[in-house]
Amino acid sequence: MNSEAAVIDVVGVRRTVSGDIDLLSELVGILQDELPGMRSALQLAAARRDGPAVALAAHRLKGSLSALGAVCASTAARIEQAARFGSMETVNPLAAQLESEISNVVPALQTLLNSEEL
After folding, report:
1. Which string of b and e fits 75-106 if b means at least 16 CB within 10 Å?
2. CATH class of the domain defined by 3-113
3. pLDDT tens, 20-70?
4. Which listed residue, of 39, 45, 103, 114, carries a Cα 20 to 30 Å from 52's Cα?
5. Residue 49: CB atoms within 10 Å
6. Contact in structure between 21 and 113 (CB atoms under 8 Å)
7. Coil, strand, or helix at residue 36?
8. What is d(CA 62, CA 90) in angstroms, rounded to the nearest whole number?
9. Could you tell me the residue ranges of all domains in the chain?
């Protein structure tokens, strides 16, 4: 198993972009542009213990990450669920886990873009 396979659902990405490398490249660029703001929104909402804002930020991350097959979208979903149910004590550990996981997403997508797997 190659390294991006642990981070990215390659089959899901292929399905999303129908093998169109230019579309994948464009989507990766959009993710790179939007990811810092989405991460910051989650961090700030978690620091304020603002459940609705955490849920919204996690929802946005989940959608963007899952569209590109990022396996860590499931962690964003868990954060969203915890915030919606008021389990704020679980948000910060999950947010730290997501931060670690997200750091591997764009490099894995770049590797996929440069490979013959698509």
Report:
1. bbbbbbebbeeeeeeebbebbeebeebbebbb
2. mainly alpha
3. 999 999 999 999 999 999 999 999 999 999 999 999 999 999 999 999 999
4. 103
5. 13
6. yes
7. helix
8. 17
9. 3-113
